[in-house]
Amino acid sequence: MDREYFVKENVWIYYTPDMDQTLRWFEQVLGWNGKIFDRDDQGRGTYGFVSDIPSELIISGAVPFKGVHLWQGESIKQTVALIQVSNVDALYHFVTKNGWKQIGEIYKTGASPKTCNVKTIDGSILSFFE
């Protein structure tokens, strides 16, 4: 194959009608970091990102980006991401400790001993697995 390129980054896009609210949700419920870079004439966010890595490290380019691009738009009301984490039990405890109740019980699948679904503030579903 004579392709002469390779994929450097493969991340997902999360659509939200209220980027500020969504960014706060990721920070408060999941403990992630983020930043809104672009806003429209009314001050509404149109582009940002969230990640479990501190924003400063991502912006500096010191670490590869493994986060989520936030785009302004209508949210998707189904599973939007399959995210592998090191400890689903710890994630479940962290989310419920932060008062978020829209989280399913941990269950086993053929591909993972532990999986847990979290419905976001926008109604999208994030599926976390080990």
In total, the number of strands is: 7
CATH architecture title: 2-Layer Sandwich
What's the CATH topology name? glyoxalase-related enzyme like fold
| Text of the CATH class | Alpha Beta
How many structurally independent domains?
Answer: 1
The residue ranges in which pLDDT falls below 50 over 5 or more consecutive positions are: none
What fraction of the residues are assigned to beta strands by DSSP?
25-35%
- Categorize the overall geometry: globular
Please, what is the CATH homologous superfamily? glyoxalase-related enzyme like domain
Number of helices: 3
Order of helices and strands: EHEEHEEHEE
Order of neighbouring strands in the sheet with most strands = 1-4-3-2
Query: What is the mean predicted local confidence, pLDDT?
Result: 95
The largest sheet is:
4 strands, mixed
Radius of gyration: 16 Å
3D structure, described in words:
The chain is of the alpha/beta class. The chain has helices at residues 19-30, 55-60, 88-97; strands spanning 12-16, 33-39, 45-51, 68-72, 79-84, 115-119, 125-129. Strands 1-4-3-2 form a 4-stranded mixed β-sheet, covered by helices on one side. A hairpin with a 5-residue loop joins β6 and β7 (125-129). The mean pLDDT is 95.
Q: Which helices and strands, and how do they pair?
A:
Blueprint: E1 12-16, H1 19-30, E2 33-39, E3 45-51, H2 55-60, E4 68-72, E5 79-84, H3 88-97, E6 115-119, E7 125-129
Parallel strand pairs: 1-4, 5-7
Antiparallel strand pairs: 2-3, 3-4, 6-7
